[in-house]
Amino acid sequence: MFDSTPSAVCFGGWGAGEGASPSPAQQCIRFCFFLRNFSFKDEIFQHSRNVKIRSALPGAYMHVVFEDDGRPFLLDSEMQWELEPNAFLTRVSTVNGKTSSPRTWRSYAYQLADWLSFCFETGVGWRFVTELNIATYRNILASEMSPQTGRPLKRSTINHKLSVVYQFYWFVYKKGWMTTLPFESGATRISYRQFNELRPRAMLNAGRTPGSDLRLRQTMVEPHIPSRQELRQFIKSFRTWRDRLIAELFWLTGMRSAEVCALPLRALPKDPASIDRGAVPIKVLGKGQKWRLVLFPVRLLRSIARYIHIERRQCARGAMHSGTVFLGRQGKPLQTPAINRVFSTNCKRTGMHIWPHLLRHAYAVERLAYLQEIGAPNPCVSQRWIYASRL
Q1: N or C: which end of the chain has fewer CB within 10 A?
Q2: Which residue, of 149, 180, 214, is where some domain finishes?
Q3: Which of 261, 286, 248, 285 lies closest to 362, judged by CA?
Q4: What does the pLDDT read at residue 132?
């Protein structure tokens, strides 16, 4: 539990040594974090619902804490606050206007917490690590199974974790809180696709990133797109009306899981039965908290309308009002992990390996094939997504 004295708040070193005097800017940041720390203390120990604590991994040294708006910060095992990691997360979630998605904030917080926990477990302070320590961390990630999925981590996932570590040290170095970087600062050019996976809005940096020698080489694996018959068979195998509709949405509109979960009732037409067109544009909240238009087949809209008036109405009885189309347990808004669990269960039952994002790929393939069939100009989609699949 927190001590009531200011000395209990941990801010770590200031770059020039533990006894160095902070600059006026550092004093200001330190005071702001100090006040925020005590506000958090009151919320935690008065059982406030505005803050949630989750460990990065079982037995982890660092804890990821979320405010009610989804902005994360970190506490150590003694529930103490350290300046540099939290200043970096504040930069990502508040200062940097290009990372406006709570999902991005969440990812950065968990990756940074995982790295700091590794430093603690190995007995090396994060300020004193070397390139060899980062390479050891990378090799451990590549050799162990994920505690969440039980499968080896993808190379793109490992590179993303390394990218967060690099960005954290660059941030601390530029602030003057470290005198040297633990890796070589020479930039190496890598492909746009790889770079875009590692950092949000990466095209602004012309494809250059530090520490590229430590990254794992990535080879793109083309996913196998099932035939229409296989996709229909898989979708029909879902046991609930809601789950079948969600799978159809992925396939027929190319929506993401988060977009399906956040689909608002007010965005749908009130009487789709009266629409005489084949498709209607619907405004949805997409990746990066940006609105975009998605074409919905009218046939699908009519099925959703029937679901809303029958199955959804029964699910929402006695629950708090929710403005989203699809509901989970006890009438609460559906979450992305719930969709993943439903698909995983259906894959085991049917023996077919089809996941939400694969249905999104199937939509892209069919859409591109249709545009080429009608002689439309080539869209900005790579030709590699056209497979020898029977469409």
Answers
A1: N
A2: 214
A3: 248
A4: 92
Q: What are the C-alpha distances in Å from 268 to residues 94, 239, 264, 315, 336? A: 32, 25, 7, 19, 21
- Structure token digits, residue 300: 């699908």
Alpha helices by DSSP H, 218-264: 228-236, 241-253, 257-261
Q: How confident is the model at residue 56 (pLDDT cuts 50, 70, 90)?
A: very low
Q: Tell whether the model's pLDDT for residue 112 goes beyond 90.
A: yes
Last residue of a domain, one of 168, 186, 214: 214
* 221 within domain boundaries: no
Contact 246, 228 (CB under 8 A): no
Sign of torsion over alpha carbons 25, 162, 356, 294: positive
User: DSSP for 150-182?
Assistant: SSBPPHHHHHHHHHHHHHHHHHHHHTTS-SS-S
Query: Do 206 and 252 belong to one domain?
Result: no
Query: 65: buried, middle or exposed (CB in 10 Å: 19+, 13-18, 0-12)?
Result: buried
Question: Would 145 be classed as within a structural domain?
Answer: yes
pTM: 0.65
Query: What 8-state DSSP symbol labels residue 332?
Result: P
pLDDT digits (tens, 9 = 90+) for 321-370: 678 899 987 788 898 989 999 999 999 999 999 999 999 999 998 888 88
Express as a percent the part of the chain with pLDDT over 70.
Answer: 71
Range of the domain at 40: 6-214
Residues 148 and 33 in one domain: yes
Considering its fold, how many domains does the chain have in total?
2
Q: Which residues pair with 282 in a beta bridge?
A: 294
